[in-house]
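Lab notes, practical 5.
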Amino acid sequence: MGFVIRWIFAFVLLAATYNPTQWNYVRWSMANYETSLSLTVLFGLILLIGYIIYLRATLRSIGVFGMLLILAVVGTVLWVLFDQGVMSFADPSINTWIGIVALSVVLAIGLSWSIVRRRLTGQADMDDVDE
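Output from the prediction step:
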């Protein structure tokens, strides 16, 4: 259940930043930065904090190579689904949502990987060891 919660938060973070609807930070800030600059900066900083948390944890647990490897696996799964006729990439807005889901899966795996590795191997990370 912990992985699902991490994935949902990663998905919300990415979708709140940008999605194909009008309800996202990028479009809202471009339309309202002149009249609501303080809110634009505040929401931008909150999103930045979320990205720093997710990216730092992901980079520390699986690294850039691990991120690329997981993204390659997710991309290959999408390729198989397309090749088997299960999905189509004709609609640009659907493609954007697929990209958001794919990136959120990478971030959720990165945030969860230390926990999975500890359970599989019984080894603690350096951050887990008490001094």
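Observations recorded by the TA: The helical segments are 2-17, 25-32, 37-61, 63-83, 92-121. Residues 92-121 form the longest helix (30 residues).
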